[in-house]
Amino acid sequence: MALMITDECINCDVCEPECPNGAISQGDEIYEIDPNLCTECVGHYDEPQCVLVCPVECIPKDPTHVESKDELMDKYNIIQASLG
């Protein structure tokens, strides 16, 4: 399951540099997460790094992008292959 950033985001800028896949970017009003790049840090870390650093806890799982750990690992492998 990809993550999402809710409108409680305060644009503090701490999540974007933590994302190993480059899935987080500044949107029109708040930061956004690209569900095609978000693996919840599977393949990189045990926990989503953006969630760990968010001071307002506005990064829940995105119910419109449900994925299993295996699917997230497959996505991670695809992303890594495209970089190499």
Structural features, described:
By secondary structure, the protein is α+β, with helices and mostly antiparallel strands. It has one domain (16-83): Alpha-Beta Plaits. The chain is 24% helix and 7% strand. It is built from two helices and two strands. Strands 1-2 form a two-stranded antiparallel sheet. It is globular and about 35 Å long. The model has no long low-confidence stretch (mean pLDDT 96).
Features:
84 residues, alpha+beta, Alpha-Beta Plaits, 2 helices, globular, electron transport, 4Fe4S_Fe-S-bd, 4Fe-4S
Return the domain count: 1
Mean pLDDT across every amino acid position: 96
Tell me about the biggest sheet? 2 strands, antiparallel
Spatial gap, N to C terminus:
25 Å
Q: Provide a count of the helices.
A: 2
Measured as a percent range, the helix fraction is 10-25%
Q: Report the portion of residues in β strands.
A: 5-15%
Shape: globular
Strand order of the largest sheet: 1-2
Broad CATH class: Alpha Beta
N-to-C order of helices and strands: EEHH
The class by helix and strand makeup works out as alpha+beta
DSSP E strands, number: 2
Low-confidence stretches: none
CATH architecture: 2-Layer Sandwich
Q: Secondary-structure blueprint of this entry?
A:
Layout: E1 24-26, E2 31-33, H1 49-53, H2 69-83
Domain 4Fe-4S ferredoxin-type: 1-29, 31-64
GO molecular function: 4 iron, 4 sulfur cluster binding; metal ion binding
Protein name: Ferredoxin
